[in-house]
Protein: Lysine N-acyltransferase MbtK
Amino acid sequence: MTITWRRLGASDFPLLRRWLEQPHVARWWNHETSAEAVARDFGAAARGEEPSEDLLVHLDGRPLGLVQRCRLADYPGYRDELAAVTAVPEGAVTIDYLIGDPGQTGRGLGPAVIRAVVERTWEELPDATCVLVPVPVANRASWRALEKAGLCRVAEGELEPDNPVDGPAHYVYRTDRPA
Structure:
């Protein structure tokens, strides 16, 4: 099993749109799914006009999912919201992720993708000190994937949910750069 990724491009938007329409993704990724909305929401990162990275993840050369990665310092409002719940050190990075194909869920691929992205974060972002990931308490599959990937729950608190149907209760997971 080989996990690779590259920056998401505009030519990937139709695939991403299909993934965002899948019920298992739509439940937690509250996005409009029109072609215009996907281009609006993901276009700036795809063009390198935004500091975040949208990474198209592949499993053995076939598209599997998406990982968003960013330095929290590049998004001060989000960093400050998270800092009300847990310590956010200089150099902290966060990720978000999805497995697009429902047939690929429940097979241990989420933890494998998270582990791979975290390991490469240390190489690709030399100033990264830790990875912090907030996840809604109700999203058990997501926080279990983080635990299986080796992240530790370090906090619980209220954060603005991505999907308004969710309450504000979140867990925050963390892993630090290896010594």
User: Anything to note?
Assistant: The chain has one domain: 3-176.
